[in-house]
Amino acid sequence: MKKIHFAIVSCLLAVALLVTACSMPQAAVEQPIVNEAPAQPAAVLPEKTEIPAAPTDSPVSVPAAATEISIVHNSLPGSPVYQKQLPGECNTGFNYQPVGYQVRPPCDVWHTALLERAVSADMGTFYHYLDILSAQTGTDGDWYYASLDLFDAGMPADGVTLTYFFELDLNQDGRGDILLAVENLDLRGTAWTVDGVRAWRDLNGDVGGATAIGPDSQGGDGYETLIFDQGLGDDPDLAWARRDPDRYQRIEFAFKPALLVGNGSFMWWGGAMRGDFDPAAFDLVDANTEKTLYEIDTTCGWIFGHEKAYNARKCFVAPDPTPKPKEDVCVKPPPPSSDPCYIWFPEKCQWECFN
Ligand SMILES: [Ca+2]
Ligand SMILES: [Ca+2]
Ligand SMILES: [Ca+2]
Ligand SMILES: [Ca+2]
Questions:
Q1: For the whole model, what pTM was predicted?
Q2: Given CB 3.0 to 4.6 Å as the disulfide criterion, which of 108, 148, 206, 241 pairs with 116?
Q3: What is the pLDDT of residues 168-198, one digit of tens each?
Q4: Which protein residues have their CB within 5 A of the ion that is ligand 4?
């Protein structure tokens, strides 16, 4: 009985293998045939003309493309220095509750593209590695630096793409001109790397669509020009990213002044998001809807260098309350004389004589 059972199982396995082999994608069945091809009689191959053709493509295009490009780096960023810091950024991690949490102003203001949504759309999950708490920019003359401080370091457990980015607005009109991003930066990646680092430009000026900053459905092609792709581009050392070795929750970018195409002053703001990152979808409030765009945190804008023009992206800083006139400190002097008519009036800060 066991033998019959075994035989049936074997038959089923054989059938299963055959079916599986037949239903497997081309690439999977090509491999063994390629390996055997040189040993096969020449007459066999022409019968399956389409099969020999494919394998010659696959070894050449995929592995060769990855190995033949060797990027030589000549200059590496040093230790970042920062001169500018955001005046503030909301701490969702501090306020979040799994039940009843809402995103709301002033942290989240859709019509000024300020998003505080380090949560799932149903508010049920908080993503600590998306929640930006602060951001800085600076320069040491050779490099510019930009960093984001997060609620905590982390990577998506579900394998979704994680992107940190900065937008640089050279003419300070609220429309970003340069987008710098790093994708899936290693959780222990404390050495400067170009892996996952890309930079784009908006050369036709349509980031922001019909209305700068504010949402509209007239978005264009966003940041359409990829100028740096993980070391590929005019300068293999143009832009880098890492985690601060002293605190993994600080994401740091370094880029050469050339990225700013001659500008020493610019407005900047940052972001962190989960999911597909599409440079053509900027401004994100133009390409998405308020009810569906979640799992993202963005900052308000701040100026590096001098301010060329005001725009509504700029972080709102409440003016200092009008300082009260400084009250004179009353020091009680001795009475003018020993006459008991003198009575001390502290509110007037003086002695008065009543006879
Ligand atoms: Ca924010
Ligand atoms: Ca935040
Ligand atoms: Ca817009
Ligand atoms: Ca564009």
A1: 0.73
A2: 108
A3: 999 999 999 999 999 999 999 999 999 999 9
A4: 202, 204, 206, 221, 224
